[in-house]
Design goal:
With 124 residues, the chain is an all-beta fold. It has strands spanning 2-7, 10-12, 18-26, 33-39, 46-52, 57-59, 67-71, 77-82, 91-98, 114-115, 119-123. Strands 2, 4, 5, 6, 9, 10 and 11 form a 7-stranded mixed beta sheet that branches.
């Protein structure tokens, strides 16, 4: 079983930045995908970024060029650096994990079995 603990949400002004962290614990999988999803009020949950165990990273068009995924030295810590935030980025942010590579389905919600608790990001 894998547990994901998130931190780093908050309130920020338009144009500001936040760094969202996701720390994994529990079972170790050699192959995995760790992704971020967000859900704004009244909207469906959408995938915004994902990183595979081979280091490949995918971004949704809505965040490409503004958000950056990185991995900490501890290897089980992942970061989503969010820059140039706008009110449209206001949402609950979740990290999610799966024990298979994401590839072309990195943003498929139903393929993720492990979810963090979610953190609120408000841009206002």
């Amino acid at each position: 079983h894998v547990q994901l603990v998130e931190s780093g949400g908050g309130l920020v002004q338009p144009g500001g930045s936040l760094r969202h962290s996701c720390v994994a614990s529990g079972e170790t999988h050699m192959r995995y995908c760790l992704a971020w999803f967000r859900q704004a009020p009244g909207k469906e949950r959408e995938g915004i970024a994902g990183v595979d165990s081979d280091g490949s990273i995918s971004y949704a068009d809505s965040v490409k060029g503004r958000f950056t995924v990185s991995q900490g030295n501890a290897k089980k810590t992942f970061y989503l650096q969010m820059n140039a935030l706008s009110p449209d980025d206001t949402a609950m942010y979740y990290c999610a994990g799966r024990s298979t590579p994401g590839g072309g389905t990195w943003d498929s919600i139903d393929k993720y079995g492990f979810w963090g608790q979610g953190t609120q990001v408000t841009v206002s």
